[in-house]
Amino acid sequence: MTKLDAPGVHLKERQIRQKEGRAMIGNVILIAEVKTESPSGWKSERSWDDLFAIANKHGDMISIHTDPRWGGSIELVARARGMTRKLILAKGIHATDDLVAEAFYAGADYVLVVGRVPAIQPQHCLIEPHTVAELRELPPTTLAVWNSRNLHLLYQTDNRKSETFAQARSVFPGWLCQASNLTTIQDIKPGANAVLVGTKLLEFVESIKNFQPRHSLV
């Protein structure tokens, strides 16, 4: 079993959040992303330190980019590790197992890998396929991510996939994270076990401040 097993939120983190009176988003994990820029030209008005503080306060897990195209680096993963006891996801393409190993060595608890399953600690990797067909081929025990952005169109502002989260959920029975194009909790799709929020993190956090869950979202 991994730290991401049911009921959906790391137990210790759930207890801490409840003690502090902070709202839970049903059983959906919030992976708060620290992102200062993107290849499409977007740039955050906040510094890395400001965004980290927000992610560390509100996230169940913190996502730190390792790719400089998103303002990331392996060094920032190591820096974040020294600043929090929360779970850290190293986010990037990670096209080789050497890059995956570097992220774990820097202190990441989990590493996001795009388009393939690495040989190194696959049980602690979040796998992001490009298509629904690729997702269907993954073992149901995989920690999978469905990104609504087409990473083949990184440098375009209009890069949303034609395939949807609903289609992804329908073919994959396991743990599935919804990523990108989330602004508020209203954007969480049925069946999401987690959401990965970066560009609109501030707006998303505002939307959950007065959230009173009436039922589970998963």
From TrEMBL:
Task: Give the pathway annotation.
Answer: Amino-acid biosynthesis; L-tryptophan biosynthesis; L-tryptophan from chorismate: step 4/5
Give TM segment ranges: none
Lyase is among the record's keywords? yes
User: Keywords on this record?
Assistant: Amino-acid biosynthesis, Aromatic amino acid biosynthesis, Lyase, Tryptophan biosynthesis
EC class name: lyase
Reaction it catalyzes: 1-(2-carboxyphenylamino)-1-deoxy-D-ribulose 5-phosphate + H(+) = (1S,2R)-1-C-(indol-3-yl)glycerol 3-phosphate + CO2 + H2O
From the UniProt record, give one GO term of the biological process aspect. L-tryptophan biosynthetic process
Reported EC number(s) for this entry are: 4.1.1.48
Q: Does the keyword Lyase apply?
A: yes
Known Pfam families for this protein?
IGPS (PF00218)
- Residues covered by the Indole-3-glycerol phosphate synthase domain: 27-201
Mind telling me what this protein is named? Answer: indole-3-glycerol-phosphate synthase
Q: Which organism is it from?
A: Candidatus Uhrbacteria bacterium RIFCSPLOWO2_01_FULL_47_25
Please name the taxonomic classification of the source: Bacteria, Candidatus Uhriibacteriota
